[in-house]
């Protein structure tokens, strides 16, 4: 058959001149096998091409098999390396604990030995992950990012160890960190200087490592991610503590009366059973003198009945906070800004006692209980044992049911405060200084332990540590303040359960963010308790509707540069007024709640247009938790 006679083949044939293999002859043609020699050669070439085309998939498959085997071998080696690395991480963690123990005990030889071992372990981990095997593993899809981040981690840990931990350990070698605080509560100023030097060596490498870990993306392997979550939290909290301590410690000698100076501080025991915006009513107070790090505590006294001294309280404070702030020392802590409250209280102390103070230290019964528990302190006053398990309940509830006169109660509180602080100072040298630092940081963030210093630089430092109880003026990091006070003229704060929830923010066109916020005030006393309670507990404000009625003041303080709007209340009886306090937009709300009754306050909070972070909350520490 003539190939050209087939129109279909003609249409399907490639264009003339195209580089194509010879077209096979029609089936059965004799010349297919026995034609001209040229055609025979072309036929043989065609056969070889076809043979080659058939072989290449097998060659490719063979290459793939080799690659798979190679990858499998590399994967097995990498897995083996990873298991070894996991073991070394465990060793590193264990050595850190050994170093901590050595530093606390003052064992110089152990400190040097463990520090060197720690450096070797860290370097081994880095060397392992610097290998070509790990470099190749980092290129793998999906899990390659985990490998890359593991390499980052070991590099960071090696730097932290060699540039921070080892030099800091050498600085402290042969000294006991535990000797920082001695019997009687004295602070070893020489040890303080050594510790300050060591932390200055540690802070930069630690911060760098913490930043590296915090910037890592979540690991694909969940077990690794769970572990890394703990690592991130641990590094972040330690970094925060070290950075703050590095700022604080160099100034401590001056604050502790170095070089023979005597510093006078006022200790104020706040009672949350009678809530005030800054914590509680300042029931008793006493002087603390410190010379060359050695403290001495004076007698504690009450402020009851003192009204003959006029403070520098402003008109807005007396209108929006408490009308008695101008002449009543007990009203000072009604201010939501502890720095302001402490300043007013110091004024009254100096007037009545005739001595000036360098600062104010405020503590509440919950902090006192935590400190007594940490120091295993216990005192017996008037036959009542007060310790780390019952101090809060004893001081904020039981005492009011036990005594019938204010004189007896005031004497009990003053004596308990004096004995408790003496006991704490006598046992504080037995407390792990790291745990003590964590306790102070935690209680300070909850406003249960607050500090104020007359020296402006020292006060600025305390603010940076988050222990000043002051209102935030940072517009970029908005803070909503919800501060609670009792207006029942009673100790109903023990039953006050105030909660605030912040909804999701909605971004506005001007850059600000608006949040829906709900604050609830619940009177947790039962009807039976209210009937049985002494009048001293339930209070005598003539605005009360019933014996168990609880009258509360809630101050809603907008973030710096922000505002509060659309305030509505439901449930209990309530009224409110707005204004400006200390430059902040605020709303003053008063509520009446009978036993088991709740007032709900809903409102909108809009931040400043420059806010760059989610809004957070600052509140008055309540007498107890109702969770």
**Uncertain segments:** 1-53, 63-75
State the helicity in percent bands: 40-55%
Strand order of the largest sheet: 3-2-1-4-7
Mean pLDDT: 85
Strand content: 15-25%
The computed structural class is: alpha+beta
Q: Strand tally, please?
A: 17
- Shape label: globular
Transmembrane segments: 58-79
Biased composition (Basic residues): 38-52
Protein name: DUF4012 domain-containing protein
Region (Disordered): 1-52
Structure description:
The protein has 627 residues and is α+β, with helices and mostly antiparallel strands. The protein has three domains: 64-255, no CATH class; 258-445, Aminopeptidase; 471-619, no CATH class. Helix content is 46%, strand content 21%. The chain is built from 18 helices and 17 strands. It has helices at 7-12, 31-34, 37-105, 108-129, 132-137, 144-172, 189-214, 222-248, 252-255, 315-320, 338-353, 365-374, 391-402, 406-427, 433-445, 456-464, 527-532, 535-538; strands at 262-276, 279-291, 294-302, 359-363, 378-381, 384-387, 449-453, 479-486, 496-502, 506-507, 513-523, 550-557, 563-571, 573-581, 584-593, 598-606, 616-619. Strands 3-2-1-4-7 form a five-stranded mixed beta sheet, sandwiched between helices. It has a five-stranded mixed beta sheet with strand order 14-15-12-8-17. α6 (144-172) runs antiparallel to α7 (189-214). The longest helix is centred in the first third of the chain and has 69 residues, at 37-105. The model is unreliable at 1-53 and 63-75 (pLDDT under 50). InterPro entries: DUF4012. Residues 38-52 have a biased composition (Basic residues). Residues 1-52 are annotated as: Disordered.
